[in-house]
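Subject: design request, 701 residues
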């Protein structure tokens, strides 16, 4: 029996299982290490190597052979880390190698394993006291550091002994782990770093005592005690984060900077040229790179980026070339540009997305010529800027020892990985499942701001037949939906085949079009993004006259859910039904680093929070001018990112105003969309809701 698309999408984790990822290349460029499950519906991720000299691919670690438990027994800290990283697979989802890439360590169900790439032996279990979090080999491969029980520990590989370097010095203190704001919003998933020679670590001390406690209950199981979480909501205290250099001989040196003025620790880099840290003030109008004297812990300024609105944290920088030249990515002349030694080296026509690697003096970066595409480029002082990927599509990669591992996809093809060395191409196979449908996507520029927009029509549709419209946005900062990649449009095509013209538009705030476009949502996360959806809809309707603007629905998750609810509440003249999944409804209930970047501190910018809230619109009773439109609210009750209080409070406000609506609570579900049967039925329920609300007949069989 053929599986339905919703079920297959759920089983395959949106068709990501079986695709190679998490690549590391050895310094000589001869070995590629990567993660991949054995098949497109297999959620257990394995560790693999590929040897370029022989063309041999080898399975290094299969979790099913190492961990015989029926289900992973993850420590709470690891569950939280995976939630922050949106990691939906299991097994070996992360690993760390030595500098030479001859061995790797990883954790399974809180147990520590060490694998030798050259020996051909199975990974060996290393006995530890307590559950292991984020194990990392030192550069020489002689020791493994890991977090456990709130402390930081080091295991000597040859001697088999484990030493505790530092233990928690308070009830709410941890060492070596990222705090919530760093992991959720700054892309800093780690909390400690080895020195280049392996004789010391620099570790983050996180004290969550100042952070207010929220409680995540499980109403389906009232006998269970609610889980207390330290959640730094907008305007409330963050965790206190500091750093110490901890030498293996026991000497400890605190790293000193003005923490009161720069409370966010954005990144730490310890390379051959020394230790540097990146800190940011609460208002995010600066990003400061400081050099650290490892003997005294004192810091001196290396670089400062400032902006009157906010400074973006860009992945991969700061970094240094082989000769020690500082590399940054900065907003200059209306573009996000690569800056080497203080001067920009990329043109204003290119929006730099990230720095991926530095191979001696060659820099590997991603950048966009158009917002829906992401290309792969290198830059060096001798060769300048060189494109490494085909035009169009999405591309990423790693570059070490002259070997390039490139991942690529476009509108016609799934993701693939190619390793290029000495002019020879090696293909790392992908086992990702075939979705069974091919999106037919038209990309265009819509409205006066020429918004990136995708249009998908039913595969069976013939011109002349009116089509209801389904807007399918994310629409908010830091994320795009309109991308030149097949997998980005699979769900939209499935909805189209249910009888809708699906329109996906990336409005102001979304990346890839430059700093000014991103900052256009400053102090108002509602009206600009809503106006852009309407502009895109109306422009598309002029190009496709069969679109029925009297039957327009909208759906979304997270910020997209917020936008969907906003649409039917504020503009019921345009939108006639909405499905809002895990929506933020009151920005005072969302976290500090994200929310205050866009809306400021609620004590100083209360009007920004009011104009961006859903509650003002929800409180207006239905009338001829503001009719009530069908609205389905969906929320996971275990969500610790956008907590269920958002939906519950909005539901109460709607009820008080006499606005009928539906609420679908998902027991045990977090902010990540749920798996298997729940995920399948969730899509089916949305379709049925939208069909009924908009009067859409079932598609032809």
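Subject: RE: design request

Done. Sequence follows.
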């Amino acid at each position: 029996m053929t599986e339905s698309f919703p079920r297959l999408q759920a089983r395959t984790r949106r068709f990501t299982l079986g695709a190679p990822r998490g690549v590391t290349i050895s310094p000589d460029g001869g070995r590629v290490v990567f993660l991949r499950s054995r098949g497109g519906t297999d959620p257990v991720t394995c560790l693999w190597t590929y040897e370029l000299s022989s063309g041999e691919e080898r399975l290094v670690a299969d979790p099913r052979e190492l961990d015989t438990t029926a289900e992973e027994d993850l420590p709470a800290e690891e569950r939280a880390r995976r939630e922050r990283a949106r990691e939906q697979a299991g097994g070996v989802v992360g690993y760390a190698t030595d500098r030479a890439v001859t061995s790797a360590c990883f954790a399974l169900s809180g147990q520590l394993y060490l694998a030798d790439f050259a020996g051909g032996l199975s990974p060996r279990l290393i006995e530890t006291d307590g559950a292991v979090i984020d194990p990392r080999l030192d550069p020489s491969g002689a020791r493994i550091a890991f977090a456990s029980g709130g402390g930081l520990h080091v295991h000597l590989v040859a001697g088999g002994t484990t030493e505790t370097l530092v233990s928690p010095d308070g009830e709410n203190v941890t060492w070596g782990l990222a705090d919530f704001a760093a992991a959720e919003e700054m892309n800093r998933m780690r909390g400690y770093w080895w020195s280049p020679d392996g004789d010391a670590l620099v570790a983050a001390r996180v004290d969550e005592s100042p952070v207010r406690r929220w409680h995540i209950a499980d109403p389906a199981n009232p006998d269970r005690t609610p889980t207390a979480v330290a959640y730094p909501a907008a305007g409330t205290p963050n965790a206190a984060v500091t750093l110490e250099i901890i030498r293996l001989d026991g000497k400890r040196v605190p790293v000193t900077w003005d923490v009161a003025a720069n409370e966010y620790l954005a990144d730490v880099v310890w390379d051959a040229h020394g230790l540097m840290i990146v800190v940011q003030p609460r208002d995010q109008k600066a990003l400061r790179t400081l050099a650290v004297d490892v003997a005294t812990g004192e810091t001196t300024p290396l670089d400062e980026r400032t902006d009157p609105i906010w400074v973006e944290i860009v992945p991969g920088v700061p970094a240094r070339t082989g000769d020690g030249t500082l590399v940054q990515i900065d907003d200059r002349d209306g573009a996000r540009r690569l800056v080497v030694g203080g001067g920009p080296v990329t043109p204003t026509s290119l929006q730099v997305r990230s720095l991926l690697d530095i191979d001696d003096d060659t820099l590997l970066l991603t950048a966009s010529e158009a917002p829906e595409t992401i290309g792969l480029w290198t830059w060096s002082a001798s060769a300048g800027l060189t494109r490494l990927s085909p035009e169009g599509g999405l591309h990423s990669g790693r570059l070490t020892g002259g070997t390039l591992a490139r991942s690529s996809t476009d509108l016609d093809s799934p993701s693939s990985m190619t390793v290029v060395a000495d002019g020879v191409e090696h293909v790392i196979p992908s086992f990702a499942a075939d979705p069974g449908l091919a999106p037919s996507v038209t990309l265009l520029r819509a409205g006066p701001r020429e918004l990136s927009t995708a249009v998908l029509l039913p595969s069976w549709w013939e011109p002349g037949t009116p089509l209801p419209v389904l807007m399918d946005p994310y629409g908010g900062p830091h994320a795009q939906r309109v991308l030149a990649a097949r997998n980005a449009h699979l769900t939209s095509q499935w909805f189209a085949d249910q009888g809708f013209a699906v329109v996906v538009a990336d409005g102001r705030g979304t990346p890839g079009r430059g700093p000014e476009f991103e900052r256009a949502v400053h102090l108002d996360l509602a009206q600009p993004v809503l106006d852009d959806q309407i502009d895109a809809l109306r422009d598309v309707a002029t190009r496709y006259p069969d679109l029925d603007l009297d039957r327009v629905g909208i759906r979304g998750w997270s910020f997209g859910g917020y936008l969907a609810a906003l649409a039917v509440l504020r503009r019921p003249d345009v939108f006639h039904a909405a499905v809002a999944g895990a929506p933020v409804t009151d920005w005072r209930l969302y976290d500090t680093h994200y929310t205050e970047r866009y809306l400021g501190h609620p004590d100083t910018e209360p009007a920004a929070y009011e104009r961006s809230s859903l509650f003002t619109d929800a409180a207006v009773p239905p009338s001829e001018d503001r009719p009530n439109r069908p609205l389905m609210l969906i929320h996971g009750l275990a969500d610790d990112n956008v907590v269920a209080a958002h939906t519950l409070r909005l539901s109460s406000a709607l009820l008080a105003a006499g606005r009928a609506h539906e609420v679908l609570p998902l027991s045990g579900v977090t902010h990540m969309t749920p798996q298997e049967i729940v995920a399948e039925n969730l899509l089916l329920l949305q379709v049925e809701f939208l069909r009924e609300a908009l009067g859409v007949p079932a598609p032809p069989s």
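The radius of gyration is 25 Å.
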